[in-house]
Design goal:
Length: 92
Amino acid sequence: MAIEVRIPTILRSYTDGAKAVDASGETIADLFADLESRYAGIQERIVDDGKLRRFINVYLNDEDVRFLDGITTKVSDGDNVTILPAVAGGGI
């Protein structure tokens, strides 16, 4: 089962600069474990204590997985997963 995972610029150092990589698994957590097996260190930048890190957003086919089943959200062949760091700004 091939699922495209889009990697943000800040994490591309783990994927040798690749903007997107294929991963496999039945859930988002499985995808992250698969990524970790090939790109050591990437999973700890996304997940902490079994949950998404506070400032990381993950989308499955444009839906925020936090509003689905979090990292236990099921994935299917052909799905797209996008990892995005949260962006915050401030006013003057």
